[in-house]
Design a protein that fits this description.
mainly alpha, 7 helices, 58% helix, 186 residues, rod-shaped
C-alpha cells in the first residue's frame, strides 16, 4: 500500500493527529525520509503493542464516499473483514480480552493470598510445618526415653519397699513426671 502522512493515517484509524505524531516521535511507528507512514505496517505494530484487555477508545473513521459501481463490473461479496487497529480482539479470538482480564484477576487474587499468608506468618499465627514436626519429634523422644528408663530407675526402689501403697506412689510419681515433660512448654 502507498505511504500516507501521519494526519491521513490518524484519520484512517480514528485517532488524533497528535497521537500519531507522538508515536512517530517516540519511535513506535516507523516513517520514511519524508515523514510518511506505511499504513499496513503501522496497523501490525499497533495491533501487536495494544493491550487487549483495554477497550479501544476510538471513534469510527468517517466512511469514504461511495463511488458508483459500473453495472458491468460485479464484485464478490466480502467474506471476512481484515483486522484493523481499532478492533477489540484478534481475528478468531473474540473472547481474548475477557480471558486476559480473568487471568490478570486470578494473578492479583493469588498475590493477595500470598501477602495475607506472609502477614500471618510474621504475626506468629502460622508456623513452618517442618519446625513443628521437628519439635514434636524431639519432645516425644524425651518422654519415650523417660518412660523406658522407669524400670531401671525404679526397680531397686520398689524392691526395697514392702508397702504396696508406697510402691504405687513411687511408680505413679515417676510416670506423671515423664508425662508432665510432654505437656510442658516447648
Amino acid at each position: 500500500m502507498a505511504r500516507i502522512s501521519a494526519r491521513q493515517y490518524a484519520q484512517r484509524i480514528g485517532v488524533s493527529g497528535s497521537y500519531v505524531s507522538r508515536l512517530v516521535r517516540d519511535g513506535k511507528l516507523p516513517v520514511d525520509g519524508q515523514g510518511r507512514i506505511d499504513p499496513d505496517e503501522a496497523d501490525r505494530i499497533l495491533a501487536a503493542t495494544r493491550e487487549p484487555a483495554r477497550r479501544a477508545n476510538r471513534i469510527e473513521p468517517a466512511p469514504a464516499p461511495a463511488r458508483p459501481v459500473p453495472p458491468a463490473v460485479s464484485r464478490p461479496a466480502p467474506t471476512a473483514r481484515p483486522f484493523a487497529f481499532g478492533d477489540t480482539a484478534m481475528p478468531g479470538s473474540s473472547d481474548l480480552p475477557t480471558l486476559l482480564l480473568k487471568a490478570r484477576t486470578k494473578t492479583e487474587v493469588e498475590k493477595g493470598r500470598l501477602l495475607e499468608l506472609k502477614a500471618k506468618v510474621e504475626a506468629g499465627r502460622f508456623v513452618d510445618a517442618d519446625e513443628v514436626k521437628v519439635a514434636a519429634f524431639n519432645r516425644a523422644r524425651i518422654v519415650r526415653d523417660a518412660l523406658l528408663n522407669l524400670a531401671s530407675r525404679l526397680s531397686p526402689l520398689v524392691a526395697a519397699e514392702s508397702d504396696e501403697r508406697a510402691c504405687f506412689d513411687l511408680i505413679d510419681r515417676e510416670v506423671r513426671q515423664a508425662l508432665d515433660e510432654l505437656a510442658g512448654p516447648i
